[in-house]
Each structure stands twice: as C-alpha cells, then as structure tokens.
C-alpha cells in the first residue's frame, strides 16, 4: 500500500500548524506511519496463513479466524491512521479557499491566508475535536473487537463446521501485543497533544478578545503586556477617583 498521499497531507498541514500541531505531525509521521510501514505491516502480513488449529476439518480454521479477528488488526490500524489525518484536510481546504478568494478579488484580504484567526480558527478547532473523537472511537473499537489489547497465544473455538472445541494458535502473539501497546500509547499521546493545542488556541483567542475589548480604552501604541497593565490600571483608578479619567489618559499618552 502506498502512503505517499498521507505523507504529502501531513507535510501540507505542517505549514499551517502551531508549535504543538507540528509536534503532533511529527508523532503521526515518525512514531505511527513509519512504524506501521517498516515493522508492523510485516508482522501481520501472513496472519491468516499462520493461524493454525489442531484439526484439519475443512472450513474450521477459516470460521475460527473470522470469529476472533472480524477485522484484521493491521487493517484497523491503517484505517485509524487515515481517519485521524483526514480532518486536517479541512484546514488545508480553508487556506486554499482564502488564497483563491484573494486571487479572484485581486486584493489583500488577509494578513496571511494561513494565519489561524477568524473562520480558519473555527475550522482548526473543529479539526482538533474530530481528531480526538476519532482517536477515542478507534481505541474503543480495538478494545471491544479483540477483548482488550492483549493477544492470546491460544484460543478455543467451537463454531461449526468444527466438530468439537478445538485449540487454535495465533502466530507471534507477544510481538503483536507489544506493537498494539505501542499503538495505544501513541494514540493517547496524540489525544493529549490535540487537547493541549485546543486549550492553547482557546486561551490565546480569549486573551486576544479580552485585550481588544479593553485596549480601546487605552490610547497609544502599546505592546501586549503594557496594554494589559494599563487597561487594568485605568479600570481601577477611574471608578475610585471621579474626574481622574483625563489625568490617567494624559499619563498613558505620555507613556
């Protein structure tokens, strides 16, 4: 299977991400995609052929394998990688829409089409929520489909056409279990990174809105920290000292 499209998608998203978002891209690309391609895919490559039962009844091994592995673990892992990366397309499409809009009107409409603000901020937050939701959904699927994240060495099967309860053996159970634990760990790490980025953007936007509301009362060109301090100063002095508004404004102008 070719993963070039996912690599290109992650590279494109990296340009419009925050610092935390770039860490998420690195984790997905290095610790999930490369691990899948280089190692995990080969471990599950012949899982059906290496699944053996201690009976040669025609069809018995097939129905037992289908019962214990309704969806191949490696296929579900691949589907998870694709699904959790897809919401990032929303950001890429939104940036492309901004660029096309500027080109169509032949004028500068944004400071930068890739700057995370306004509608693009909403799109970015939605993509983060979708990523977290999909990660959680797939972790639950893994847990429910395979009765946890352990891979047993031996499973007992009594499904027809097996004439009685037979023992079936799974190949490389320890190695598969280690990789499944690694999958769970990286998924949890990605959830933490998405949640951190979501919190960071909401906090940053809230501070920005707070300053926009109060900076109007503070004339002059001030940096972030000075504006915040002067706005607090103005709010505290003016209500407690009627008639002092002009003096405070004069002081601010001098600063």
TrEMBL record:
The keyword Transmembrane applies. Keywords: Cell junction, Cell membrane, Gap junction, Membrane, Transmembrane, Transmembrane helix. The lineage of its organism: Eukaryota, Metazoa, Chordata, Craniata, Vertebrata. It is found in: Cell junction, Gap junction; Cell membrane. SMART domains: CNX (SM00037), Connexin_CCC (SM01089). GO terms for biological process: cell-cell signaling. InterPro entries: Connexin, Connexin_CCC, Connexin_CS, Connexin_N, Connexin_N_sf. Belongs to the connexin family. This is Gap junction protein. Residues 42-75 form the Connexin N-terminal domain. One gap junction consists of a cluster of closely packed pairs of transmembrane channels, the connexons, through which materials of low MW diffuse from one cell to a neighboring cell. One of its GO terms (cellular component) is connexin complex. It is a multi-pass membrane protein.
């Amino acid at each position: 299977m070719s993963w070039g499209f996912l690599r290109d998608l992650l590279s494109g998203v990296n340009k419009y991400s925050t610092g935390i978002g770039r860490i998420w891209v690195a984790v997905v690309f290095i610790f999930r995609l490369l691990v899948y391609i280089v190692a995990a895919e080969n471990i599950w490559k012949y899982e059906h052929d290496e699944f053996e039962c201690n009976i040669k009844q025609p069809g018995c091994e097939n129905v037992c394998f289908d019962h214990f592995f309704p969806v191949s673990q490696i296929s579900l892992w691949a589907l998870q990688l694709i699904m959790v990366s897809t919401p990032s397309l929303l950001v890429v499409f939104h940036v492309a829409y901004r660029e096309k809009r500027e080109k169509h009107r032949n004028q500068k409409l944004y400071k930068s089409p890739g700057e995370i603000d306004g509608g693009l901020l909403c799109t970015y937050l939605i993509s983060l929520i979708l990523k977290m939701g999909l990660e959680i959904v797939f972790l639950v699927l893994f847990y429910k489909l395979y009765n946890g994240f352990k891979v047993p060495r031996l499973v007992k099967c009594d499904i027809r056409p097996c004439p009685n309860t037979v023992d079936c053996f799974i190949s490389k159970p320890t190695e598969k279990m280690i990789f499944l634990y690694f999958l769970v760990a990286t998924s949890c790490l990605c959830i933490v990174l998405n949640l951190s980025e979501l919190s960071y953007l909401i906090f940053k936007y809230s501070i920005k809105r707070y300053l926009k509301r109060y900076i109007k009362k503070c004339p002059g060109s001030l940096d972030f920290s000075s504006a915040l301090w002067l706005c607090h100063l103005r709010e505290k002095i003016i209500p407690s000292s009627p008639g002092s508004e002009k003096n405070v404004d004069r002081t601010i102008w001098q600063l």
